[in-house]
Amino acid sequence: MISSEPLVKIRNLKKYFPVKNGGVLHAIDDFSLDIMPMETVGLVGESGCGKSTVGNVLVRLLDATDGHIFFEGQDVVKAKSRELKAIRKKMQMIFQDPYSSLNPRETVGAILADPYQIHRLARGNDLKKKVSELAESVGLEPYILEKFPHELDGGKRQLTGIARALSLNPKFIICDEPVSALDVSVQAKIINLLISMKQRMELSYLFISHDLSVVRHISDRIAIMYLGQIVEISSTAVIFENTLHPYSIALLSAVPQVDFNNRSKRIVLKGDVPSPVNPKPGCRFAPRCWMANEICKSETPPLIEVESGHQVACHFWSQSREQARRVVSGN
Amino acid sequence: MVKESNKPMEKQINEKQKGNDLQREEVLRIDNLHVEYRSGGATARAVNGVNLTLYKGEAVGLVGESGAGKTTTALSILNLLPEGVGFITKGDIWFNNESVFKKNENELNKMRGGQIGMVFANPLTSLNPVFTIGHQVAMVLMKHRQMNEKEANQVVKGLLEMVGIPGARLNDYPYQLSGGMRQRVGIIAALACSPQLLIADEPTTALDVTIQAQILELMKKLQAEYSSSLLMITHNLGIISELCQRVAIMYGGEIVEYGSVREIFDRPRHWYTYGLLHAIPRLTGPRETLEALPGLVANAQNLPKGCKFHERCKHCMEKCKSQIPPMFKVSDNHYVACWDVEGKA
């Protein structure tokens, strides 16, 4: 058993952005999540659902509007700059676009040396040795250290981003769409590296992605987000076998599958994701939901535990699977 | 049973199909196409001898990673290669048995948008930001169907509603629409004149899965309604599996494997196809370690000798390094360019 105390505890996290005409954009609304040591939690949702904002608020690239983030018991939301620097040593981030997240004016070697210098951990020959060991650990050849980011292909750039995140022996890494910009064959390499690094360095990941197949492959648990809120969360196996939220059901059925067998019938959602500005009361998925009722438009369903470790925010979770069968069979 | 053949696979398939399916009407035939990009003294051999035939009403997928030559092939069909940079050095493309390269500008413009519709990957850059969406779709109808503005607008309203956009949004500009809506506008603009052939170049790559599902269902429906042929360019094997009957796998500007989607996905015969299928995580079944392909996609400026894939292939033999494998026939509907045809389990 892994230690029972969560490494990261997110409690009622809110992030609102003011927009034109006095509106308020609810990017994250009442978001709570625990991440255990050595656990990978996948955070899935469509563009604009707030999943990247969660990552940015966790490392304080953005300040939370309300709520708490406890990392090893310390509240990140309230941390002062010196405390934050210490926290960020243990909490790192890997970005989607390794090109815009690497300084174009530094060589890979300099980029990888930065963390050690900023935290005054190494200098001179010791620094050189640390950098080359780090590069080797992710499979970057020594000559790459002399190159600038623009001279590298997407895969090598992402390896650089990963090496930088691993440099200070973190405990927790937020991976924000780390493979979305890569070709299939390179994507597999990066995913395999992330999995082996997790085991070798005893890491926890928050793996943010819109790609359900990738998330299924890498995650122990999966949280599905819709318009700033978690609508369903469970272990990976359970969420795929006993999907209960109508949005999750539609989302899983929407993924085009390679396998010809056990291909599920598709529930095609109508319309687009509504605006997160000044959300109406009630369930946020109700306007697109294929089983919405009067109560869904007025009362926000709470996230409740329906079986051990499986939470769902839907008034009608107990009927969703039966109803889904009826929808796809055309009645 | 695999036997080597010197005939281009298309010819073999054509002969075969002439035998057992006379109704199959050929819409497009790409014949030994070679394309080069020349710029600043460097030459990139983007397409190196592609053969592909599309029949009426069928959906064919063109799969490959970035730089495989998929988009270049598509642009060649419309004779839209960047002028002064992209050159067709060999081969021909036949649309309705007429050579695309022999058409004059007037005939080409008739073909583009009228007989062949194209949906581009990024709907924000392919729609003109200073015209309303209604005007942009109506223009196609006014040009190719000789409608006046009023008639065209009526048709556009109907088309918009068919794809779930209220007709009143006719007067919206592209920036006022969501990404999914813009792509649907791109699709109806391509389909407005019910073209015989629709080329879709990564049409859903920029979109969310639920919106992608909408677009895919729409394309299926429209394709059935107009019985147009579809050339679907994508790196997403799931989309191919759900939408297409046949698939061509491209690598280094060549088609390396070609035929029935089901047969190829169930039992790939090229090590590159095999590698692609084992590199992607699945939504069902046990979670197996992904097999990453070593190395990088072949560089079009410096293509390897022999099989273009040999430097990345775990099963590379001496022969592969020097001799380009011909197309072998695996079955009536499955062809592969790999020396190690029998190797795969």
Short description:
The complex is a heterodimer of chains A (331) and B (345). Chain A has 331 residues and is of the alpha/beta class.
Verbal overview:
Chain A has 331 residues and is α/β, with parallel strands linked by helices. Chain A has eleven helices and twelve strands. In chain A, the strands form two sheets. An eight-stranded mixed sheet of chain A has the order 6-7-8-3-9-10-12-11, with helices on both faces. Chain A has a four-stranded antiparallel sheet with strand order 2-1-4-5, with helices on one face. In chain A, helix 3 packs across helix 4 and helix 5 runs parallel beside helix 6 (184-201). The longest helix of chain A has 18 residues, at 184-201. By secondary structure, chain B is of the alpha/beta class. Chain B is built from twelve helices and 13 strands. Chain B has a nine-stranded mixed sheet with strand order 1-12-13-11-10-4-9-8-7, with helices on both faces. The model of chain B is unreliable at 1-20 (pLDDT under 50). At the A-B interface, helix 6, helix 7 and helix 9 of A face helix 7, helix 8, helix 9, helix 10 and helix 11 of B.
